[in-house]
Amino acid sequence: MKYGFFDDINKEYVITTPKTPLPWINYLGSKDFFGIISNTAGGYDFYKDAKLLRLTRYRYNNCPYDSNGRYYYIKDNENVWNPGWQPTQTPLDSYECRHGLGYSTFESSKNNLRAKLTAFVPIKDNVEINKLELTNDSENVKTLDLFSYVEFCLWNAEDDCTNFQRNFSTGEVEIIGSTIYHKTEYRERRNHYAIYHVNHEIDGFDTDRATFTGFYNSPANPDAVNEGISRNSVAHGWSPIGSHHLKVTLQPNESVSFIFLLGYCENKQEEKFEALNVINKAPAKELIAKYSTDEQVDTALKELKDYWNSLLSKFNVETGNEKLNRSVNIWNQYQCMVTFNMSRSASYYESGMGRGMGFRDSSQDLLGFVHLIPSRARERIIDIANTQFEDGSAYHQYQPLTKTGNLNVGSGFNDDPLWLIAGTCAYIKETGDYTILDEECTFNSDSTNKASLFEHLRRSFNYTVTHKGPHGLPLIGRADWNDCLNLNCFSDTPGESFQTTGPSSGPVAESVFIAGLFVKYGKEYVTLCNELGLDEEATACEKEIDTMIEAITTHGWDGKWFIRAFDANSNPVGSHVNEEGQIFIESQGMCVMAEIGLDNGMALDALNSVKEKLDTKYGIMLQQPAYSTYHLELGEISSYPPGYKENAGIFCHNNPWIVCSETIVGHGNRAFELYKKTNPVFLEDIEDIHRTEPYAFCQMVAGKDAPSFGEGKNSWLTGTAAWTFATISQFILGIKPDFKGLRIDPCIPSDWDKYDCVRVFRGKTYNIHVLNPEHVEKGVKSIKVNGTLLSSTIIDPVLGTNTVEVEVVLG
Ligand code: GLC
Ligand code: GLC
Asked: N or C: lower Cβ tally within 10 Å for the chain?
């Protein structure tokens, strides 16, 4: 069953009912100011950091699920309704929500009154713009009351929903004309406030929630709206809101538009006030002046659309498969931007309070983002490196506002350091910019303790070399990529964090996954050493890599697949000797991607075992058989009921590792078949099972052991976005940035005849035409660049004109 459709021309997903299986959301904002918006206009806004600078409140885990947003109430005689259906849930005569790239629109109607709400954050300013157009489609004059509504958060989202003894007494606002200023805590240490403004004279306002709704009512049924009269309440403590009241008269066929602005404003410390306790409104006035007319707002929206068109023009493929084109050209790249911006901080499943930017997460997000805006990728790499510890280990997460390590989750996830090499190398391959390696980065954000980025990478590499266990494999620490494989934790106390309990590193628990990761990205580190003329170091590192490969093939091989780990007692995890958890996906994917076992059959055996034991129609499960009981020695992984999350769920993040591995062994048909299984665009028809947005990857899909097999969970913020984009663009379509240039090496389904791709790379536009006359899965027969035959599969960036014609023949 479907709940909408893709509009590829406008790059939108069109939702045709407000009652989607879950809220289907979109992201507004591209750099500092962000909003989350659902298909019923639910969601919230924040500036830079969803925990520390939250503008509006959202109630997670509520009933109904999606509660609070930017709501507009239209009172047309006795009918009170919202363009986005929520919160009144008044049945609408028509409803349509379009989620586009950085904007969402809602068009609905009731009793011949039409409302169109457009929500977006302009590229240049810290404000969410809501343009609401009302049209009278009836033959009579309509006299309406329009009410707006947002509920302010008292800035620190965590404190806001826990510290009620204080917070019920701190809320403050000012109301001047049509602008509501939310200034809680401004009198003391804050130098920022929020505004909620409308570009019309108002007929009333409310800023106190309980007065607006009535103490026993809710936003679904507010007294002020029902009676058609604002109370002009001025919030003192309790829950400050912003609500405007506008009386509207519309002749038949007449339209009127209202521009609402929800913005963030900041003053210099010494310019905070214009009179005693009266906030300096200069930045607000400046902001309002920029977005007061339809023309200004329409221009800003057009700028946003142009911005996205230009970003997406950097990679555009034309295959015979419409769904593939749509995923690669629009939605997957869009999600890569979202995951780059948010890491794992704010979604409908990440509260914005728990996690900030993940060291490994953000490093991996770069893999799918770096081609879009390399300069922002560069900044991010440096931000991440700045939090690294002197010994090469890493904070697991850091706070986006302060950019310092987050102590709550601590450190000791021993895969973390290596991902910094992955992210940095992706950046260099894309740009050829080796100067990033000279950038001075701090250790643990201490400005008196710095070293070059290259030195940081060296410490990442050496951290693994110096932290090995009895089998010569890397110590796992608190966990590796699988946050839930906690082999040193041994927690028997309810509520203890699996990630911070017990010693951060036991003496023996080892990870075969980190071993594979070390081989894969260690090789890239060696390339950097060679490039910098560090030949001796390169040779020494190669030896370390060989030693690691030896350890993997000797101790990390179970006979038909790679073992996953050795626990704190040196017993294998992910081996046929285990009763449950006999085979895991991660070590198969990472070791084959690292090209381990290509020459001795191990790689092929591992992939066959994955197919035989882990594959399902909805993707590859993380492990099998699922753990049916809690295992003290394994930790969080065994805390989940079978089929969910890391306990044998289909973890979408690592499915592309297997897709990628299949291309490495030349299986284009199998790779593409797997690629489609977790791709939401291909699942649009089974949304009643899948449930999450058909235009965004989710973190996991319930595995076959779960009663809800096939159900997607935790959409949007997942490494799946970056890994899937890297896999489809570089390994299937085979257009792969490499240190020395653009490498072309496709691995495709054999029934494809041809495809075309435009790829902007290091300032040039490559028009790539791939032909497959012999219907092979892999193998490049010839490459011509501007008509000249090439002798390798790498196109040297100095070759050709600014627009380069590339003809590739497979065979
Ligand atoms: C989540 C985390 C990621 C981790 C994965 C597996 O997606 O954000 O860091 O690798 O879970 O546990
Ligand atoms: C990962 C896992 C999740 C776990 C979390 C702990 O995100 O997916 O199950 O709770 O890590 O940080």
From this structure: N
